[in-house]
Amino acid sequence: MQPVPSEIKAPVITNSYAIQKERYGEILKIYIEANDSEGDMLRIATVVEQTGYGRYPVDWVYLKPEHGQHFLGYLQWNTVSSKTAKIREWTQVTLKVSVFDRAENESNVVVFPLEFVSEMVHHPPLPFPFNQGDIARLGHVNVDLFETWQDGP
User: Fold this and answer.
1) Which of 35, 31, 43, 30 is nearest to 11 (CA)?
2) Which of 80, 93, 125, 126 is the most core-located residue (most Cβ within 10 A)?
């Protein structure tokens, strides 16, 4: 009789939200809620892909120990970049967010499309559960965008 392999218990992102249009230079908040039955969530991975440029290196946010089993909060991305003064109208990026535990098990990946526009953006009310009181900032996304029509990095 062969031993039954134990089921891998990866974290699960249960809720997520971010607006899909924003002005370049504004602060973008990426809301996520995640659970881990084993209580050992360690870090959040954010991958940014920019149309016309490609994929940026993974950005990591390490979680506080009290967020090991459950968290509800947001990642803050200050979209202004030290690499460029402006981004072309309608530049599109995609953010992919997942959570890793201490054993490097990865959660489901949530995908957030984002388009940079010049007009003022209306921010609708946050959906449940992110509209329930104070939401903690989990950390900052540290990705500096490039403008593709300028010289490369």
Assistant:
1) 35
2) 93
Residue 121's alpha-carbon distances to 28, 50, 51, 128, in angstroms, are 12, 20, 21, 21
Q: How many domains does the chain have?
A: 1
Compute φ and ψ for 71, nearest 5 degrees.
-150, 155
User: Is 139 within a domain?
Assistant: no
| pTM score over 0.90 | no
Domain that residue 88 falls in: 12-119
Q: What is the CATH number of the domain that holds 88?
A: 2.60.40.10
Per-residue pLDDT of the chain (153 residues; tens, 9 = 90+): 555 455 778 999 999 999 999 888 889 999 999 999 999 999 999 999 998 888 999 999 999 999 999 999 999 999 877 666 677 778 899 999 999 999 999 999 999 999 989 888 888 999 999 999 889 999 999 988 877 665 444
Q: Give every CB contact of residue 118 below 8 A, 6+ residues apart in sequence.
A: 23, 89
Which amino acid makes up residue 51?
T
Cα separation, 146 vs 43, in Å, equals 26
